Amino acid sequence: MGKLSRNVFDVLKERGFIAQTTNEEKIREILGSQKVTFYTGFDPTADSLHVGHFLQLIVMSHMQKAGHRPIVLLGGGTAMVGDPSGKTDMRKMLTHEEITHNAEQFKKQMSKLIDFSDGKAIMVNNGDWLLELKYIEFLRDIGVHFSVNRMLTAECFKSRLERGLSFIEFNYMLMQSYDYLKLFQDYNCVLELGGDDQWSNILGGVDLIRRVKGEEVYGMTFCLLTTSEGKKMGKTEKGAVWLDPEKTSPYEFYQYWRNIHDADVIKCLKLLTFLPMEEIEKLSQYKDEKINEVKEILAYEVTKIVHGEEEAQKAQQAARALFAKGGDFDHAPSTEISRSELGDGIGILDLLMLAGLIPSKGEGRRLIKQGGIYINGERVDDQNLMITSQDFTENHLLIRKGKKVYHRVILSK
RNA sequence: GGGAGAGUUCCCGAGUGGCCAAAGGGGGCAGACUGUAAAUCUGUUGCUUGUCAGCUUCGGUGGUUCGAAUCCGCCCUCUCCCA
């Protein structure tokens, strides 16, 4: 375990995590002098965590290693409402069942980064207290402390005031603030962490506790993961990059980081890996073509944290095999096809569909017309091409789509 | 509660009875150039189909019409003004 002597605040700052703090000096002081219980909330609005959550988990991990106690707050209650912060559109409402299922998935993924054994970290669900709230009581006890005028001036509501904000979402801040109060009372939690879009909500909680309890607690936000172009990171054409291997395979996950823009590599190393700063410094000297080596390190490290060392190695070998020489193909994405399915042969378009490389045959025709499909390294120029067992070498066949998408087809008995 | 508007393909946004699978931009995909980068240029971007063509789409639903994204009724959602 880490020692309190090493101040995790400095580490976070050095690595570029911190966006805003309620009281920088004080936070630094307590993090260096005592065991602090802190919390971060996660609303289970999808059935897997994604890269944005991952950054928060890394922070929690840094904190835990430094000897502090994390509380993971699952937003089983707040997810019923929907956080308007940073969103331009109204949230879709989730059912109770969906939320419970999602929360289960979250738990599994989080335990990879946070040690929940022996009470070293706690997981709670705000549904446990929010769902049973009495409306009038809540208004009288909590609602009185909030000024609508002030809330309306909060940055996080600005865009929503133009586009529309329903009353239910407007209440989100009160609920999150109440969570903090509750955790302060029950666990002596004195620090709330979150993405920078949570700043207003965190302030709400800090203010509430001061008013109700007369005590000072703290809040700190972290920069959102964005690309050098200011776009949210962790999005692909297919949607978010998920931590669930069923939704984003370790190979795809690895490739996402392997293909990151030059300008973002060092930032990602600092934020998403635990590599020591000295080493990152060294890597930041790499320029031009050499920067590819840094990208490999980034992809490997991040994949290792999320999917484990073994999967990271497989992903790396697969990528190397496909893009360079060496490594083995065994771990590249693949589809199996049986001899009976293959029969006397299968049309190239059907094969592409089977492998999930195209969403429709029209798309496949277009790709072939434009020269974007290769079978075993040969460009395909006939959309009626039949693939037969002759095309398989040792029951394997390699399809390439565009420059980077590789897929193996394995012929089984 | 009263009044005025709006809902278009992944997103923004044009389209006000046939020439609309629907302009333009963004994004995506592919090609060229590269370093599995960026920028740039080119092509492409509903489904089925070798071509012709056919099919499904413009908030929902029911009409009018030879023919509707476009007109009419009802419903849903959102925005604005008044209370």
Structure description:
The chain has 19 helices and 15 strands. With 413 residues, the chain is of the alpha/beta class. The protein folds into three domains: 8-222, 3-Layer(aba) Sandwich (Rossmann fold), CATH 3.40.50.620; 235-326, Tyrosyl-Transfer RNA Synthetase (Orthogonal Bundle), CATH 1.10.240.10; 334-412, Roll (Structural Genomics Hypothetical 15.5 Kd Protein In mrcA-pckA Intergenic Region, Chain A), CATH 3.10.290. Strands 1-6-5-2-3-4 form a six-stranded mixed β-sheet, sandwiched between helices. β7 (235-236) and β8 (239-240) form a beta hairpin. The chain is elongated. The mean pLDDT is 90. The structure holds one RNA strand of 83 nucleotides.
Strand and helix layout:
Blueprint lengths: L7 H7 L3 E4 L2 H10 L3 E6 L8 H15 L3 E6 L21 H15 L11 E4 L1 H4 L4 H7 L6 H6 L1 H9 L3 H4 L1 H16 L3 E5 L3 H15 L4 E5 L12 E2 L2 E2 L9 H9 L6 H8 L4 H7 L7 H17 L1 H15 L10 E5 H4 L3 E2 H7 L6 H9 L3 E3 L2 E2 L6 E2 L8 E6 L3 E8 L1
Parallel strand pairs: 2-3, 2-5, 3-4, 5-6, 9-15
Antiparallel strand pairs: 1-6, 7-8, 10-13, 11-12, 11-14, 14-15
The chain binds one RNA strand of 83 nucleotides through helix 15, helix 16 and helix 19.
Poorly predicted runs are: none
- Overall geometry comes to elongated
Put simply, the count of helices is 19
Helix fraction, binned, reads 40-55%
CATH level-four homologous superfamily name of the largest domain: HUPs
Largest sheet: 6 strands, mixed
Please give the CATH architecture of the largest domain: 3-Layer(aba) Sandwich
Mean pLDDT across all amino acids: 90
